[in-house]
Specification:
The protein is about 80% helix and about 0% strand. The longest helix has about 35 residues. The chain starts with a helix and ends with a helix. The protein has six helices and no strands. The chain has one domain: Four Helix Bundle (Hemerythrin (Met), subunit A), CATH 1.20.120. The protein is elongated, with a radius of gyration of 21 Å. α2 packs antiparallel against α3 and α2 packs antiparallel against α6. By secondary structure, the chain is mostly helical.
Length: about 150
């Protein structure tokens, strides 16, 4: 039994480690359009939260608990969008090889990833409808770049 475990460990070190996986954990359930759809759901939640925050802020004494919940909800969905861009699109879908084969496309995708992250950050920092509109606009550009053609 010990020899088998030892052989498995040794084989693990000498076996090829490069996998051609789509995800960090190759589970096969993610695809770009599903992730983009979830980002739109995050956006819609942020948009609704900003509206509810403005409405509830008219009487903060009566609405303080609901106000806090909507603020937390808005921030968690903005954070989720940032994490999807960072952990899915930047880490897995934007390929460094594209920088040499199609530099213009690569740079446009990289710039748009950054714009989504910044727009989501601004939505976390405030409840300004202009920030929500900016997020909406950049999300559509993002989808054009990463979604199915």
């Amino acid at each position: 039994m010990k020899k088998t475990a030892l052989l498995l460990c040794v084989f693990g070190f000498i076996a090829p480690t490069q996998l051609s996986a789509h995800c960090q954990v190759p589970c096969g359930i993610y695809d770009d359009n599903n992730v983009l759809k979830s980002m739109h759901t995050d956006y819609e939640t942020i948009e609704k939260a900003v509206k509810k925050i403005a409405e509830l802020s008219k009487d903060t004494n009566a609405n303080s608990h609901q106000l806090v919940r909507w603020i937390n909800n808005k921030e968690s969905h903005a954070q989720a969008m940032q994490e999807k861009v960072l952990n899915y699109f930047l880490a897995q879908r934007l390929k460094l090889a594209e920088a040499t084969t199609n530099k213009e496309s690569y740079l446009k995708k990289l710039e748009t990833c950054h714009k989504v992250i910044v727009a989501a950050m601004k939505c976390k920092q405030s409840s300004d409808p202009k920030d929500v509109l900016t997020l909406h606009e950049v999300l559509h550009v993002f989808q054009d770049l990463f979604g199915e053609k």
